[in-house]
Amino acid sequence: MLKEIKGLHHVTSMAADAQENSDFFTKTLGLRRVKKTVNFDAPDVYHLYYGDEHGTPGSVMTYFPFPHITKGKPGVGEVGETTFAVPKGATGFWKERLVEHGVTGLAQADRFGETRLMFDGPDGDGFALVEVDDDERAPWTGNGVGSAEGIHGFHGASMRLRNDGGTDELLKFMGYEKVDTDGDITRYAIDGGNGADVIDVDLKPDAADAHQGAGSVHHIAFAVEDRAAQLNVRKALIDTGYQVTPVIDRDYFWAIYFRTPGGVLFEVATNEPGFDRDEDPAHLGEALKLPSQHEPLRDRLEKHLSPIVD
Predict the structure, then answer these.
(1) What DSSP line would sit under 206-273, residue for residue?
(2) Residues lower than pLDDT 50 in the chain
(3) What is the CATH architecture assignment of 8-304?
């Protein structure tokens, strides 16, 4: 069993409109945009990152806004819901705020003894706010969200799968323990993680396959402290039979990727070097930052990419 994984690092999804996406995460959810860059593999598309003050691993939701992308079709083989941790008693505040901002899909429920408020993102993305007691992570406040209500970071994520198909074995190998079951949903958690410690597996044996598009999660990333830990994880996964990519430099972290038995794309990302490597911490997410290989394209990209008005 691996010991290096410390919970989630980030979750990356796809969107249809960069401005709408930025407004939702900063003005509705009150998160900070910590980086405005481009998709390293398709630089004519933004890559936007939202999180806490520093973009701490375990707090960062990221998006590729593809203009004219078709809407995703929910199904099995994907992350169906991303959950954020909020303080105890914050659900009433968030319910009122989300209604005021015209957010759809609101529903309140209890799961595993936790109060959760489900809602849709602007492209139909599945989200929930989960009340968590004694979360030591500092929330990012602003845009009308105070410390008594602010999002601390991720609580976790839920994967929709047709069957277990080896995912139980994989999660346990990655250091997660099965902690509870609620109907068709099985909860796994990592001990001593970064706060973004929960993975729920929602079995839907009769559901159709998901088709990715706007509102779909592209991949889910797990955090390791540094490159040495990442190399240990990579070797262990390969030795177990997984096809794992070489280490890829993403400027703000190093990444490896592999496909799970259930079809979900997993990433393992380093906590280092962080989002302030090329930007003053007081001004994260303001300027368009480009990786060195795309810097020669700056003039063309700045003309092509639609401006984001804060």
Answers:
(1) TPPBPB-SBT-EEEEEEEESSHHHHHHHHHHHHHHT---PPPEE-SSEEEEEEE-TTSPEEEEEEEEE
(2) none
(3) Roll (3.10)
- Quote the CA–CA distance of 48 and 34 in Å, as a whole number: 8
Number of H helices, E strands in the chain: 5, 16
Q: What are the sequence ranges of the domains in the chain?
A: 8-304
d(CA 250, CA 255): 7
Q: Which two tokens stand for residue 275?
A: 């989002």
Distance between terminal CA atoms of the chain? 45
Model confidence pLDDT, tens digit, residues 131-171: 999 899 999 898 999 999 999 999 999 999 999 889 999 99
- Planar angle of CA 193, 257, 191, nearest 5 degrees: 15
| DSSP secondary structure code for residue 29 in this structure | S
- Local structure of 184: helix, strand or coil: coil
Give the tens place of pLDDT for each residue, 99-118.
999 999 999 999 999 999 99
As a whole number of angstroms, the distance between CA 46 and CA 36 comes to: 7
For the sheet with 60-65, list strands across it: 32-39, 42-51, 60-65, 8-15, 217-224, 265-273, 253-259, 248-249
Cα separation of 256 and 305, whole Å? 28
